[in-house]
Specification:
With 469 residues, this protein is an alpha/beta fold. The protein is built from 15 helices and 22 strands. The structure holds (2E,4E)-2-amino-6-oxohexa-2,4-dienoic acid (6OD).
């Protein structure tokens, strides 16, 4: 039974809830669910640890981040196993992306924080400088799609900036966070600096609303994000949200078509389409539209299906497959549930799917699906392609495929998205600002932007007396 981790100790409190393996549907673990008392205990533990942690020189905190990275390396296989059990992810992805990014997150923010200069401003007779102070206790609310990657993406900058944290992983994916709690103990991290509580959205709600929590960072759906925003508005808590997307991919007639097709296979089907950065709307120049569709459909049928995170989420994705048909789409690949003839048939798989023929105003083309599926539509001009891509309430990521350098810059600069990838997808430099516009989020994390969010400046101004002439 997984227990909470509070004040450096496992805490077995609250009733049990089950976690299912999405690849088989079987119950794989029971987990304690945080009730109001557990949430309060975790926040108090974080508050008690906050003063000493904040007072520690940043170089020492950076040292702790490096030790946590080493701790992750030492427990690499356990983290891989926990993440796969909860999510049904492919082994290769988990070994090359999810867990290594945890290590990279701690190492990167250790370096960025330790080397960051502070600001000083000099006017005649006035010297001002700023110091940055941690916010206090940060609630870190983590989604189920990239549980370890996203937890550490938020933890590392929050901790190195001098905050203590209470983490609430998704109820569907608590496993890697539970291993991380053991890593915190094994490395001897001061008790209360990291606290982890398990439970459903109701536990997350209690956490973010707790008066002892000073700031909230969240990645997940726009619906949950706006609910959190409203519930913390009265206390004016700082928030940083990376929310939903309906990301566009643009394929120009001058692209390298092989690369564009393979890149689109990655951007649509990685993690079963369950990454906020995945592409759900493809726009292709009319002169190569038919060719692109045929190739993408062939490749989609070769992609190994991945399970959706839950039976409920599979129903949601399948309801969009049905919606596409009822809205008049032509299905080019997939569109239903794969049959394996083995234990996976009780898991939550759906087929990688490509459809075409829907209007821009169809619900299918407007709402985030979060599954392995895209719609493909033709365009005739660069201006039309940009308008189509921007015609969404969301604005997280966009991808464009062209060999024309001028066009690449011109189009990238006109796209309404926080992130634009050219001839690639989900290529990361952890120092860059990361986040979305419109309904896709508020604030940016990444590099010094993360350190800015997890701290607040105090400006100190001194009047310099001039000696009498
Ligand atoms: O790679 C990252 O740093 C990041 N924040 C990815 C977010 C993915 C959302 O599903």
């Amino acid at each position: 039974m997984l227990t909470h981790f509070i004040g450096g100790q496992p805490v077995a409190a609250g009733k049990a809830f089950p976690v299912h393996d999405p690849a088989t549907g079987a119950v794989i673990r029971q987990v304690h669910e945080a009730d109001p008392e557990v949430v309060d205990r975790a926040v108090r533990a974080a508050r008690e640890a906050a003063r000493d942690w904040a007072a520690m020189p940043v170089g020492e905190r950076a040292g702790w981040m490096r030790r946590l990275a080493e701790g992750i390396e030492a427990r690499f296989d356990d983290l891989v196993a926990a993440e796969i059990a909860d999510t049904g992810k492919p082994l290769d992805q988990t070994r090359t992306l999810d867990i290594p990014r945890g290590i990279a997150n701690f190492r990167a923010f250790a370096e960025i924080a330790a080397q960051r200069p502070e600001d000083a401003f000099h006017l005649s007779g006035i010297l001002s400088y700023t110091i940055r102070k941690p916010l206090g206790v940060v609630a870190v609310v983590v989604p189920w799609n990239l549980p370890f990657l996203l937890m550490t993406w938020k933890l590392a900058p929050a901790l190195v900036s001098g905050n203590t944290v209470v983490v609430k992983p998704s109820e569907q994916t608590p496993g890697s966070a539970a291993v991380f709690a053991e890593i915190c103990q094994e490395t001897g991290l001061p008790p209360g600096v990291v606290n982890i509580i398990f439970g459903y959205g109701s536990a997350g709600q209690l956490l973010v609303e707790h008066p002892g929590v000073d700031a909230v960072t969240f990645t997940g759906s726009t619906g949950t994000g706006t609910a959190i925003m409203k519930s913390v508005a009265d206390r004016v808590k700082p928030i940083s949200f990376e929310l939903g997307g309906k990301n566009a991919g643009l394929v120009f007639e001058d692209c390298d078509l092989d690369k564009a097709v393979e890149g689109t296979v990655r951007s649509v089907f990685t993690n079963g389409g369950q990454v906020c950065l995945c592409t759900e709307r493809m726009y292709v120049h009319r002169s190569i539209f038919e060719d692109f569709c045929v190739r993408l459909a062939v490749r989609a049928q070769e992609v190994e299906p991945q399970p959706m995170i839950s039976a409920e989420h599979r129903e949601k994705v399948l309801s969009y497959y049905a919606l596409a048909r009822s809205e008049g789409a032509k299905v080019l690949a997939g569109g239903s549930v794969p049959v394996f003839g083995d234990h996976r048939d009780s898991g939550y798989f759906v087929e990688p799917t490509v459809v075409t023929g829907l209007s821009e105003w169809s619900r299918f083309n407007r709402e985030e699906i979060f599954g392995p599926v895209c719609h493909v539509a033709p365009f005739d001009s660069e201006a039309e392609a940009v308008d189509l891509a921007n015609g969404s309430e969301y604005g997280l990521a966009a991808t464009l495929w062209t060999t024309n350098l001028d066009r690449a810059h011109r189009v990238a600069q006109r796209l309404e998205a926080g992130l634009v990838w050219v001839n690639t997808w989900y290529l990361r430099d952890l120092r860059t600002p990361f986040g979305g516009v419109k309904l896709s989020g508020i604030g940016r994390e990444g590099g010094t932007r993360s350190l800015d969010f997890y701290s607040e400046p105090t400006t100190i101004t001194i009047k310099l007396e001039q000696p009498d002439a």
